[in-house]
Every structure is written in C-alpha cells, then in structure tokens.
Amino acid sequence: MNPTTESVAPVAPAPNAPGKPGRWRIHRAWIVAAVTFVTIIGGAAFNSLPGLLFDPLQDEFGWSRGQIGLAVSIDMALYGLTAPFAAALMDRFGIRRVVAVALSAVAAGALASVWMTAAWQLMLYWGLLVGLGTGSMALAFSATVTNRWFTARRGLVTGVLTAAGASGQLVFLPLCAWIVDRHGWRPASVTVALAALVVVPFVWLLMRDHPADVGLAPYGGEYAEKPAPARGAARRTVRVLFDAARTGPFWLLAGSFAICGASTNGLIRTHFVPSAHDHHMPITAAASLLAVIGIFDIVGTVFSGWLTDRFDARRLLAVYYGLRGVSLLFLPLLMQATVEPPMVFFIVFYGLDWVATVPPTLALCREQYGDDSAIVFGWVLASHQVGAALVAFLGGVARDYFGTYDVVWYAAGALCAVAALMVLVIRRGAPAVRLAA
Fold first, then answer.
1. Which UniProt keywords apply (predicted)?
2. Across 12-26, 175-189, 269-283, least confident range
C-alpha cells in the first residue's frame, strides 16, 4: 500500500461486519489514538503537583519531606501495580468504562485532598485514590490501545502516546506552579481535578474498545471479529505474571525499567524542584525547567518510537540508560540560584531521554511474550513505579539526613549504568515463553 495514502484510505470490513467505515476519511484508529493521548494528558495532570507541594505542605502542616515523599511513593507504587490489572479489566469490561472510572477516581482524590489535615489523609487521597486512578491510565492503557487498533506504525504510536504524559506535565506544571505561588496549593489541586473530569465526556463519546465495534480492521491489518469479554481478569493477570517470572528476559526488563522509574519519576519529577529550591532557585523557575523537559520528552519519545521500528531495541535502551547515567553525575555541579546555560543543556538532554525507553521496552515485551505482552508490560511498568516509589521516599529521607540531594544524584547515575548492562544481556530471537491462554 502506498504510504502516502495509507492513513486516509477507508478499510473495508469483512462481509456482514457492522458499521460503515467508508465515512471515516481518516482511519478511526487515529481518532482513538487522539482520545487516548488527551486522556493520558488529563490523568498526568495530578502527577505535575508532587514536586511543587513539598515546601507548601511542610510549611502549613509541619510534615517532613520523608512523610510527604511516602505519600508520593504510595501513589507511584499503585500507579505501577494497578496497570497490569487495568489491562486485564479492559479486556473484560472495555476500555471506555475502565478509563472513565479511573478519571473520576483521580478527580475525587484531588478534590478530597483540599480538606485534609493529617498526613494519613494525604496518603489516602493523594496516594491511594490518585494512584489507583492514574495507574488505570498508565502505559498499559496505551499498550492495549496500540495492540488492538494498530498493526502498522506501532512503534510510532507508542512513542506518541508515551509522550502524552510529558505533554500533561508541559501543560499543567507551569500553570500549577503559578497557582501554588500566587494562590496556594489547594486551588492547584482543584484545577487538576477539573482537568480530569473534563476528559470523561471525550472518552465516553469517542473511544471504542475494538476496531470491530465500528466494522474496521486495525490500521495496517486485517479485519477480525471482536473477541468475547475475557473473564477472570485478576486471575489471568496473576497467571501471566507467574508464567513470565519463570523467564530471564522478564527480570532483566523489570529490573532495568525499575531503574528507569527511579531516575525519572522518583528522582527528577519528585525531587528536582525542591533540590533546586535548596540552592535558592525560585519554585516557578525550577517548575519551568521541568516543563521544558516535557517539551523535549515529546520529541525524544516520538523519535525513539521511530527508531524502534528500525533498530535493535536492546542497543537503543543501552544507549539511553548510559547517557542518562552520565548526565546525572554532572547534575550536582549545575545546581545554582539562577538558570545558567549548562543547566539548560542538561534539561534538554534529559528531556530527550526521559521516556525514550518506553517504545523499545514495549517492543521487547511484544517480541518475548506475544498476545499477553500488554499485561506483561503492565507488570514491567509496575517495577518502574516501584523503583520510582522507593526513590521518591528514600530521596526525601536522604535529604532530611544529609541536608543535600547530592548522594541521590550520584547513586542514580550508577544505577543507570547497571540498567544499560542488563538490557544488553537479553537474547534476541525466539519468544522466551508461550504464556498460558
């Protein structure tokens, strides 16, 4: 098929298939991908807040950075641990229902936090509710959409949907920083809740669970009937985990991705702003730097998806982790009260590398685990968030103990070197295991 017309040609359904796909001048898969992108942006909005709230919550309630970091770590851990079950629930109940409920949970947690007065409430609202909600819209969600709606361009679409999280950060981080600085943290939390609620109608009206719902084939593929709802979602999710855990590639992928989470969400997203503020940089300036990471994250992730369609995913990951580790070793030298060119270079570089690891990691999951790759990737993502959760908590404890974040930057840089070696060990070739049906 001519690639210049591939994206606009209607795909004919199988005989007697429902729907009239010819009315869609753009393949419906791209509409679904666009809604998924916007949904992930809405879900990512609340993740823009943690790094901004350490100082306001500490000043108002007297909570230590370790206590606040613990709430963030619960959020991040549940974000990861919920993802594989959410992928299975989407197979059982459909994407629309699961995502609509997840967005509502995020909004509820954000609104409830406005009235909290104790640290345990922060852990309940911010940690539990928001963690469960955002976890249901994690990368396993984008993997499910990509696997169902696309046969061609999967690497590119994965990169674009992964970049949606960065786009949410880009949109909401400067806004939330301004609101926190001018009006306090509560209006910022309300803003995030409203952003999540606004997305719900788009999901319900435009999202569809399967191409067969509208009589289409996946983009670049052949028409297939919609499978029956998969029962026993939790049982299947756990069974897939046990099957995958008997293979070496799973542990290598999970371990390297845990380090990925530790060095991004757990470290930079959570502790960069308070660390920069320790060096007397204004919070709004530090938040703006994180927003710049979001800009270049989009570029880097989409480009990584393009590269993943063409090059060995193992080598790409080794390069990404190695360069990330080197950059972290230099970061303590760059922290100043003002934004200087070396810091800008770090921000651009780190942004290009931030989640560039996702498309090749997902590609390796598909290569090794086939039809259950979305659930396996959900468990790999869980390890990502566990790594992030540990560093979100331990980073705050280290700052309380040492009075500086320097030791955390150096440790994360060394771990990235370990991750680069881990991915190179994964063998290329036949799938590691045929998972239970």
1. Membrane, Transmembrane, Transmembrane helix
2. 12-26
In a domain, 169, yes or no: yes
- Contact indicator for 76, 130 with CB cutoff of 8 Å: no
Q: Which residues contact 182 (CB under 8 A, 6 or more apart)?
A: none
- Given the structure tokens 């090749």, which residue do they identify? 360
> Does the residue 47 lie in any domain?
yes
Structure tokens at 180: 């926190």
- CA nearest to 257, candidates 148, 151, 348, 138: 138
The first and second tokens of residue 221, run together, are: 């593929």
Q: How far apart are CA 111 and CA 6, in angstroms?
A: 44
The pTM of this model reads 0.67
Domain residues for 401? 21-222+230-425
How many CA atoms does the CB half-sphere of 369 hold within 13 Å? 30
Contact 243, 433 (CB under 8 A): yes
Q: How many domains does the chain have?
A: 1
Report percent pLDDT > 90 for the chain: 11
In the structure, what pLDDT confidence band is assigned to residue 423 with cuts at 50, 70 and 90? very high
Closest CA to 255 of 425, 432, 65: 425
Whether residue 34 lies inside any domain: the answer is yes
Residue 429, pLDDT above cutoff 60: no
- Give the C-alpha separation, 106 to 83, whole Å: 15
Q: Are 41 and 164 in contact (CB under 8 A)?
A: yes
User: CA-to-CA distance for 393 and 18, rounded, in angstroms?
Assistant: 51
Residue 41: give its domain's CATH number.
1.20.1250.20
Q: What is the mean pLDDT of residues 149-169?
A: 75
A 10 A CB-CB count for 174 gives: 18
What is the pLDDT confidence band of residue 166, given thresholds at 50, 70 and 90?
low
